[in-house]
Amino acid sequence: MRARPPLLEIDGLNVHLGTPRKRILKDVGLALRAGETLGLVGESGSGKSTLAKTLVGVHRPSSGSVRFGGRDCLLATGKERARLRREIQYVPQDPYSSLDPRRTIGETIAEALDPRHPRVPTYRQRIVELLGLVRIDGSALDRYPRQFSGGQRQRIAIARALAVEPSLIIADEITSALDLSTQAEVLSLLADLKRSMGLTLVFVSHDLAVVRSISDSLLVLLHGEVVEYGDAHEVFEAPASDYTRTLIASAPGAPGFSLD
Ligand SMILES: Nc1ncnc2c1ncn2[C@@H]1O[C@H](COP(=O)(O)OP(=O)(O)OP(=O)(O)O)[C@@H](O)[C@H]1O
Ligand SMILES: [Mg+2]
């Protein structure tokens, strides 16, 4: 029997940005199967968000290929492109700016459910269900983003992404702005959703300890290059690069970790 093809497959991806143009991603390649979580790690400026945004069509690569569900994303036009935009959902880091402050969270989720007729009464039941998935009481749907905490807002952003029923969610540093216990809450929520809904996830973080708990595979970027890529467990057991070894040794909880 042939193994299932990956849901997402990236090959030889190069992305240049800015003026003058600078090569930000260098020959990046990876493959992700449905239901699995890829941890994408690297220091600030290593290119994690650039990779994430390239996947949702914000940046256009100068070369390489991105295949999703066996189809070439870079060649997609019209309806196919619009469908890809729904199938791959991006959840950004900042829970303060990612939700429209003038809309109730019910309106925001209704818009994700039906952009043309975002009527809250029509979709009330589904909105309540989606909020329930991220452990927010449905009675809060008439409230505005400012009435929620950072962690709650981040969970609302996840509910909005889930409303679209995407095949892939890219979570870009979504726990970085949160305190430790709220961070743990969001992580455990994602782990639950992964189990219950078979969610496929790219989880971006500069913190190796955070991705460890949730990732099946792990990719480490350094200056736009892949310095490590493989099964998460194996990477932690036997990292291939010195850079990853340093990251592991300096992660909180690691044997060699020290605060001085
Ligand atoms: N639109 C842009 N135009 C020009 N350069 C850019 C642009 N976006 C990002 N860069 C540059 O690309 C490099 C990678 O940035 P990117 O935001 O992808 O890093 P990151 O790994 O997400 O960092 P962080 O952990 O701080 O979020 C940086 O040097 C950044 O300055
Ligand atoms: Mg980033």
Write the layout of secondary structure elements.
Blueprint: E1 8-17, E2 22-32, E3 37-41, H1 48-55, E4 63-68, E5 71-72, H2 78-87, E6 88-91, H3 105-113, H4 120-133, H5 150-163, E7 168-172, H6 180-197, E8 201-205, H7 208-212, E9 217-222, E10 225-231, H8 232-237, H9 242-250
Helix pairs in contact: 3-4, 3-5, 4-5, 5-6
Span between termini: 53 Å
Give the strand order of the largest sheet, numbering strands 1, 2, ... along the chain.
Answer: 6-7-8-3-9-10
Task: Please tell me the overall pLDDT.
Answer: 91
Give the helices and strands as they follow along the chain. EEEHEEHEHHHEHEHEEHH
For the record, the CATH class is: Alpha Beta
Oligomer: single chain
Structural class: alpha/beta
Keywords:
alpha/beta, Rossmann fold, single chain, 9 helices, 260 residues, binds adenosine-5'-triphosphate, 4-stranded antiparallel sheet, 6-stranded mixed sheet
Folded structure, characterized:
The model has no long low-confidence stretch (mean pLDDT 91). It is globular, with a radius of gyration of 19 Å. Helix 6 links the parallel strand 7 (168-172) and strand 8 (201-205). It has helices at residues 48-55, 78-87, 105-113, 120-133, 150-163, 180-197, 208-212, 232-237, 242-250; strands spanning 8-17, 22-32, 37-41, 63-68, 71-72, 88-91, 168-172, 201-205, 217-222, 225-231. The protein is of the alpha/beta class and 260 residues long. The longest helix has 18 residues, at 180-197. Bound molecules: adenosine-5'-triphosphate and magnesium ion (MG). Adenosine-5'-triphosphate binds at residues 17-18, 24, 42, 44-50, 173, 206.
